[in-house]
Amino acid sequence: MIRVVSLLFLMFSGSAQAVDLMDIYREAVRNDAQYAAAKAEYLAVQERLPQAQASRLPQINLEAGYDYNSIDSESPFSSGHSDFGSYEYGVTATQSLYRKQNDVAIDIAQLEIIKANTRLELANQNLMKRTMYAYADVLIARTQLGTVRAQKSAISEQLELAKRNFSVGTATITDQREAQARFDLVSAEELAAVNVLRVSQEALQKLVGKPVLESLAPVRMPFDMDAPVPNDIDIWVRRASEQSLEMVLAQHELELAKTRVEYSRLGAAPTVDLVGAVTDSYAGNSTFGAGTDTTAGIVGLRLKVPLFEGGKVNSETREAVSQYDGALQELEYIKRKVAQETREAYLDTITGLARVTAFEQALASTKLQVESTKLGLEVGVRTAVDVLDAETLLAEARRDMYGAIRDSILAKFRLQWITGRMVEQDMVDFNTLFVN
After folding, report:
1. Using CA atoms, how far apart are residues 184 and 190, in angstroms rounded to an integer?
2. d(CA 16, CA 25)
């Protein structure tokens, strides 16, 4: 039994060179490809504002051309055939004076940047969530492996005892075969637990971009995590409807869709531009029988009133209105989804903490049961199988307690994730639940 307890302690307590939750999170911030892609997308969206603002600035172009001319003419000024070249070049400039669509395009770009900021913040929160879940998965897989190996160690001792007792005639072959069957079964469970641990470690490696060679810091024992404050589920639901990043993102999308409707309707709006040009042209001949070389400067106003665009503006407007209706329904869906997830996370947290307390009591009772069963074996009122069953219950009770602790931590983390803007300090607070 001493060997079993020692093995359990080593598996559940971790090593002295353990890395904690913050170590993993900071490494993920530097190396996670999904978060890096979100940052790149954020930087790309920032360029939409200067692109939209460019429509308010003058558009200046250098234009040049050359033509070959072949003319047959009959006129009082000249007659016959002539071949000659002509060219022209100059600078043209256009300054928008009234283009309402350009102003709305700038509004759209600003809304897209605000939306991108929220998306990046949500990507960071998702990284925190993925880090917490990956970290917890490795811990629970390690706990499960420790439980199985503790059971295997206890069963191995009982198997050896059954073999000795059978050889001296104090036990039946049935005891030995039952112990052997249990040993074979737990060996298979050990292989499965090893695989689960490797898979969870691979997921963590994917997150940080490299193998995590050190052990992870385990849960600090005795476990002490505060219940959600305030102790009112309705307050948490209201907080989520106001502060959830998913809700904020959906609201940005709705505002963006509304502005795009306005932009589409302005496709048929009149425009006024100030135009100017300086051109120089030359022709070696003409129908008048003489060449020309002229320089001209032009300044004027241009009014454009679209009369018929083939139905394009109406179609684009209908499309934008449909997208706005879709964004409105998506906002309602997100509102209901966030409310449901908040209630679930709150109840899971409260229930999880109660389960931890119950399992702690069960673990203490199971320890007493093991001691009583071993004493009964010594006085002849209990069998080796009874001791084995009691030790198995002890290992399972310890595993269930750690599972309840893991579920409680994740539930509270999920509650905070849903209902507010998490920052690095929130990860630091959760990190105090683990041994540093």
Report:
1. 10
2. 20
Q: What predicted TM-score, i.e. pTM, was given to this entire model?
A: 0.82
pLDDT digits (tens, 9 = 90+) for 316-372: 999 999 999 999 999 999 999 999 999 999 999 999 999 999 999 999 999 999 889
On whether the CB atoms of residues 346 and 415 are closer than 8 A, the answer is yes
Dist. CA 341–CA 334, nearest whole Å: 10
Separation CA 118–CA 109 (nearest Å)? 14
* 54 alpha carbon, distance to own chain's centre: 33
The topology (CATH level 3) of 2-431 is: Outer membrane efflux proteins (OEP) (1.20.1600)
Of 151, 146, 188, 143, the closest CA to residue 393 belongs to 151
Structural tokens at position 369: 């049961």
Residue-averaged pLDDT of the chain: 88
DSSP-derived pairing of the beta strands 59-74 and 79-98:
antiparallel
Amino acid at 378: E
State both tokens at 232: 């009112």
**Distance, CA of 50 to chain centre:** 28
- Predicted pLDDT at 150: 83
Q: CA-CA distance, 344 to 332, in Å (whole number)?
A: 19
Exposure on the CB side of residue 150, measured as CA atoms within 13 A: 28
Calpha distance 111→190 (Å, rounded): 54
Q: For the chain, which residues make up each domain, given as ranges?
A: 2-431
Termini Cα distance of the chain? 29
The CA distance from 264 to 98, in Å, is 17
How far is 89 from 294, CA to CA, in rounded Å?
11
| 182 phi/psi in degrees, rounded to 5 | -65, -40
What token pair was written down for 14?
Answer: 């971790």
SS3 assignment, position 197? helix
Residue 307 carries which side chain, given as an amino acid letter? L
| Sheet of strand 292-304, all strands in order from the earlier edge strand to the far edge | 59-74, 79-98, 271-283, 292-304
